[in-house]
Amino acid sequence: MIQKIKGTMDIMPNETPLFRYIEGIMREEAEKYGYGEIRTPTFENTELFVRGVGDTTDVVQKEMYTFQDRDEGRSISLRPEGTASVARAIIENGKCSDTMPLKYYYIISCFRHEKPQAGRSREFFQFGTEMFGSENPASDATAISLAAAVIRRLGLKNVKLHINSIGCKECRPAYRSALVSHFEKYKDKLCDTCKTRLDKNPLRLLDCKNPDCHEIATLAPKTTEHLCESCEAKFDMLKKSLDAMGIEYVVDSSIVRGLDYYTGAVFEFIAEGIGAQSTVCGGGRYDGLVESLGGPKLSGIGFGMGLTRIILAMKEQGLDNIPSEAPSLYVAALGEAAQIKALEISERLRRAGKICECDIVGRSLKAQMKYANKIGAKYTLIIGESEIEAGRAQLRNMQDGTQSEVQLDSFVI
Length: 413
Ligand code: ATP
Ligand code: MG
Known about the structure:
This protein is of the alpha+beta class.
């Protein structure tokens, strides 16, 4: 037996209605805000993620699915996230000189070689949005409110918005030194990963899940106390805007985000009751990204929302029962002529927009009726030789058991 790859999933037809329902809400909400759907390739040159996501990140160092392209020998990676590809696409498609802001959304699968567990898989599904061309905190508030709108429309409760500002090129260096001197004092107690992060990416020490590191992190200096004037003013404006929009939040200095391109405002939506992988949505501002990929200086703000974690939260809160549309009609047939008639009727009704099935296995009448029940058909029609001869049959309403006579060639339901 060949099995699926560890950390991937089969989404069977009993689950897809829930996915489609959620995706529908994501699309509708994004389009209300004027975001357009973008589709970029599933794989890209590895260099894009090394430069875009950052070569010191876990994603690039440990988690990417990277391989040599067969004929050209260059290094290719399956996308571990969506932002770098969108930034590349706007540069490549000449959008950087268009009217700003540019707003894109996507629903994609991403690939990361992580340890599979509840809410963490190796192929995962993400709703992402990216906005380019505004440094104004009104754009941060807009992006955050879009994520909040999706969560609200899904009916999710107990999902808290955590916001922080991690500063810019101006204020980050001083904060970085303050952070390094703090952690240096506890160097012996840090986990091995954090010991290497201390040189390369000290901000990441703040969100290490190791209990010892976490405790040391709670004593660390806070980014929000080291912001330059401009970052502080922007963060204040963001808070005021969220207040005005009626979006609740907490300021949380442990939110630093995993990828290198973030600057300024960062945020996460965290769900209670779904275990350790509780960040259902994460995002922030990435003002240096487009430039670092060879484009002009163009600021950006976006987020990624994990569908499987949203579904875990929906299940936890009993919100996952999405009714799927029941078939309108099942046509049961006895004998060859009736089977052909059943195909003909089914085809006519489907062309009229109905969901319709008939026997295509050649089962007994009893087995056919059992099948009609199983699929939950609203009506059934039974046809045999005498019905074909008369051109009429009894249409049975499966909900109330009533029957009415219909003309085989013209009836509608
Ligand atoms: P985490 O802190 O959980 O590792 P991250 O910071 O690596 O997340 P992002 O790259 O910002 O995550 O991705 C955005 C969202 O995508 C996350 O908030 C989460 O909902 C989802 N996500 C990320 N990685 C996975 C994964 N391996 N499996 C399932 N969902 C994921
Ligand atoms: Mg991660």
